[in-house]
Amino acid sequence: MGSATAPTSSNALCFSDGLPSTGLPCHVEISPNGLTVRFDDGNGLRELNLPFRVLSVSAGGLNHDQLVVRWGTAPSMQRVYLKDSSLITSFRSAAPPELMKELDVTAAAVRRTRSRNRTAWGIAAATIGALIVGIWFSMDLLVGWAVNRIPLDWERRIGEAAFEDFLVQHPALKDGPAVAAVKEISERLSDHIPGNPYTFKIAVVESEIVNAFALPGGYVVVFTALLQQAENGEEVAGVLSHELNHVLERHALQRIVKQLGLVTVVGIIVGDQQGLVRVMKQIGVELLSLKFGRNQETEADVTGLQLLHRSRIDPSGMVTFFKRLNKNERGGVEWLSTHPMSAGRAQRLEAEIARLPRTAAEPFTFKWNTIQDALRPVAVRG
User: Fold this and answer.
1) Is 141 exposed, middle or buried (0-12, 13-18, 19+ CB in 10 A)?
2) In 10 A of CB 31, how many CB atoms?
């Protein structure tokens, strides 16, 4: 070992007795004759000149991407780890044939190890992916199981809290032709729901937004602008039947539980329903703008059409109203932002209607022009 005249930046890591167990940064230079290793061990800068004939090599590092150069004999074996690719290339270029054989054996071992690692990581990634997909698809089963464990009384209290909070800011109409018409439509529909566990409460709220939405527990809000856009009571019945079936299928609970996550779902499964109610009350605002999934919308469409048919209400009103809004008001209707009506969906509804047995529709007792006259502003009516 000799003494060096000036410190140099490190490009390798040295290990030896007397050096830190984590290695000591050092600087390595390659010459035609061997290596020059310089490091500062705390007692000054040291220099080692190592001819190739005393060296042996192997692969090292976590990813086998480093060249380990060894010299000496046990138990005082010393080694330096070369990670810099240009330094490793220089070493290969300068190494004698006998050392090159070791390098070739080492490179082959590295390739085998990396191949095994890639295979192992591929299997691990595929396994993790399969688990994620399995959890994703089983999530609906877990959500359904959790929702089925929520008593109707809890569901009612959740929806009631959001419903009352909304009506504080948006008071409902107390009476009038529009309220009476919505009441007649909703009662007609409710009377034909077999085993209906809900007592529906429907509020008509004055608003220029074309919208209607359902909350858990049987609470529904209809805006007057939606009534003004409808051309007859059958179209309003189509909207109400759709919303009532969101309630009957407990779609709002499913969406909220799914958004709360798997941990909460598991909590519900083991009986922590009061904890769920506390969380859901905190996100009551989100209930008012809840977007249902495609499968939920399809389910509400189909069951809604069936309910209209049982109630002897022309089910085509649902399709004509949705299609007209989608055509004339695309991008500007609140209802469509949460219940998008695609062309394919409209075609599916029309196909469902064609499959229903033909029955004679029974008209409502109200006159629709009377409803719309009552909803027009006083200045327009006058």
Assistant:
1) exposed
2) 12
φ and ψ of 133, to 5 deg: -60, -40
Mean pLDDT score of the chain, rounded to an integer?
Answer: 81
For 226-245, give one letter per residue: b (16+ CB within 10 A) or e: bbebbebbbbbbbbbbbbbb
| Fold adopted by 2-111 | PH-domain like (2.30.29)
pLDDT in tens, 330-378: 545 556 556 666 667 778 888 998 998 988 999 999 999 999 898 876 4
Domain ranges of the chain: 2-111, 149-381
Q: What is the pLDDT of residue 40?
A: 86
Model confidence, pTM = 0.61
pLDDT tens string 6-33: 456 889 999 888 788 888 999 999 999 9
For strand 12-15 and strand 24-31, is the pairing parallel, antiparallel, or unpaired?
antiparallel
Strand 2-3's sheet: what is its strand order?
A: 2-3, 45-51, 34-40, 24-31, 12-15, 78-82, 66-71, 56-60
Q: Which residue has the tokens 């949460």?
A: 338
Dig out the tokens for 235 from the structure.
Answer: 């179209």
Nearest to 160 by CA among 213, 119, 201, 125: 201
Average pLDDT score over residue span 199-221: 92
